[in-house]
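Example 9 (inverse folding). The structure is encoded as follows.
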């Protein structure tokens, strides 16, 4: 009974904001064991490692990001850049700022499509290109991707027809999707090189390891 009273009477300290120029990192995480699909969206100043805004969510939508973005701007913060996980719609939402796609999330996307150890040469060659993502330039990366497509372009365009339904689909859908993901995100993968004075993070690791991991450990203790 006493413990319950202590919990119910607890009031967290009110957040004190100090508006300034920030390099923003934003991402959401979900707590897999919860049936209510509870998640948390967090906006972090990567320079000072300070959580600026957060909110519990049940789905990661652009609207949720928009709400926190509006709050951040109304509080008087100046956004220098935004690093995020590549969720569709976010480049448009943050179109007024330099945006950086998280390298770690991009690698995970490609790995999900072609696996960690691809069997076919087409996947192995694409993996080699991805391996150099953090140490190359946009021009070199694009050139390698163009060379890859010159070799495998016809291969990823192959289609198969379902004999029962007559439906046509891409024969190598996953490797095609991996390639298209890189093409779609290429303009945001190297933003950090164009704004070196901002020290733009190339990953959202400050949130994944420094904020989300401790949160999940605490929640797991109580589930």
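The amino acid assigned to each position is listed next.
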């Amino acid at each position: 009974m006493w413990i319950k009273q202590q919990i119910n009477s607890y009031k967290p300290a009110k957040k004190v904001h100090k508006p300034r120029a920030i390099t923003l990192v934003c991402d959401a995480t979900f707590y897999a064991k919860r049936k209510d699909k509870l998640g948390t969206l967090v906006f972090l100043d990567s320079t000072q490692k300070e959580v600026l805004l957060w909110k519990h969510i049940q789905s990661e939508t652009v609207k949720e990001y928009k709400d926190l973005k509006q709050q951040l701007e109304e509080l008087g913060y100046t956004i220098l850049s935004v690093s995020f996980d590549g969720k569709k719609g976010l480049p448009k939402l943050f179109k007024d700022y330099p945006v950086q796609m998280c390298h770690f999330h991009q690698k995970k996307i490609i790995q999900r499509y072609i696996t960690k150890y691809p069997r076919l040469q087409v996947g192995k060659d694409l993996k080699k290109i991805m391996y150099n993502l953090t140490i190359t330039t946009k021009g070199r990366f694009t050139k390698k991707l163009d060379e890859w497509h010159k070799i495998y372009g016809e291969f990823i365009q192959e289609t198969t027809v379902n004999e029962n339904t007559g439906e046509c689909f891409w024969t190598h859908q996953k490797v095609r999707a991996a390639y298209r993901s890189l093409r779609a995100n290429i303009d945001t993968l190297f933003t950090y090189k164009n704004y070196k004075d901002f020290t733009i993070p190339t990953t959202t690791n400050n949130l994944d390891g420094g904020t989300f991991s401790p949160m999940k450990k605490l929640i797991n203790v109580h589930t």
